[in-house]
Amino acid sequence: xxxxxxxxxxxxxxxxxxxxxxxxxxxxxxxxxxxYSREKVKDNGVPEEIxxxxxxxxxxxxxxxxxxxxxxxxxxxxxxxFDYERGISLITGMNxxxxxxxxxxxxxxxxxxxxxxxxxxxxxxxxxxxHGEAHCGAVKRVSTALGITLGTGVGSAIHTAxxxxxxxxxxxxxxxGIVEDYLSTRWFVSRYRELTGKEIADAxxxxxLAASRDPLALGIVGDFxxxxxxxxxxxxxxxxxxxxxxxxxxxxxxxxxxxxVNANLVKLGIDVPVVPSALGEDxxxxxxxxxxxxxxxxENATLPSREITSLNIH
Length: 314
Fold this sequence. Notes:
CATH topology of the largest domain: Nucleotidyltransferase, domain 5
Largest sheet: 6 strands, mixed
Radius of gyration: 19 Å
CATH class of the largest domain: Alpha Beta
Shape: globular
Helix content: 25-40%
């Protein structure tokens, strides 16, 4: 626990396009709103463009929270591949944060923020997301839950018997490529370009058009629904979870697709509710706070390997 703000720890959520930081009050399970800080990140920028934004965002959160930075215990939810034990980025070939490949992030942050290295902990972002939702969010009363995050990449995790672990299925073979090729932002950008010859920055324009009943956009969303249904079927068939929770930027448009995904899974014999995140972007920060507070998986706990297959959904 932090001396300056009893019951609070600093949670940080880093994605391909953003960073969010806030103190988390563990006694009341809430974000300390006055300390909340968020910045956009240039995902394909040079190291300084990315790291400077991270530093400024974290510094602002510490300052707004009125705490002594040297005493901060900071938990960072980070997309993989990443050496979470040593704090070194291994992201390459993922179209995000690639300029940080093999950068010692822990040492850099420790030096720039004057925070002891041992007070900086990293964890897979999807794992942290599901941990937060399992403890105080959408699946807090579910003994076995699955979580996915949809955005710049695709994260996946499993929570069972009080332990949350990364499932690492985003890079699993799927259709003609890998899972991320069909469920991430780049799929929407690529598909829209293929059909229109026009460029978009992310999935939001497609969902906005779909909401206004644009036929082309509705077709793209329909293809996405099929892809997501197939992925979730494969993810859940062996686990038989009590629920599946979906987060990430693409999850914000869940009213346009989640009901149909649920209907597709029922047709396939998976009568498991797929629900949107209750905590939104705060989920991973809550997960990191619980992690720092001692709620960690057993050492060397692992998940069995899983194959992703394609289905015909009509």
